[in-house]
Design a protein that fits this description.
By secondary structure, the protein is mainly alpha-helical. It is 61% helix and 10% strand. A hairpin with a 3-residue loop joins strand 1 and strand 2. The protein is flat.
Length: 134
């Protein structure tokens, strides 16, 4: 078994080499606000009402609540970004951090797959690395 595993590992590593990555420090900008949280809660309440009743009145209420919530979040994001840029020593770096954080937020995160073998061992499979047995 070990000879087979070593041979298989060598061929898999040759076909799909390991990709070395570094985890970068993430800087999240805090733009949450109590008013935004209440708007979100009202939107969710309207959405639940619409899903249960299916009424056109509740549908318009839900659309209006979502629009208000989205506009408020957009304004808070703008304010947080401008505050971050104004407070930063290196303004161009701060601008690029904001741009890159917005760009990365639209992409999907890495998927982590987990396969359980027996009760004691599990196999973690990442999309950009080789399987690791734990």
């Amino acid at each position: 078994y070990n000879a087979f595993l070593n041979t298989l590992t060598i061929y898999i590593d040759a076909a799909c080499p390991k990709k070395k990555t570094r985890n970068k420090k993430k800087t999240n900008f805090n733009y949450k606000h109590s008013e935004a949280l209440t708007l979100k809660e009202t939107y969710l309440q309207c959405l639940r009402k619409y899903q249960t009743t299916g009424s056109d009145l509740h549908k318009t209420d839900t659309a209006l609540a979502k629009k208000n919530y989205d506009l408020r979040l957009k304004m808070l994001k703008r304010q947080a970004s401008s505050n971050c840029i104004n407070k930063a020593d290196n303004k161009s770096k701060a601008i690029w951090q904001i741009v890159n954080s917005e760009r990365k937020s639209t992409k999907q995160g890495k998927e982590q797959l987990k396969l359980k073998i027996n009760e004691d061992k599990s196999l973690n499979i990442s999309m950009n690395s080789s399987p690791k047995l734990h």
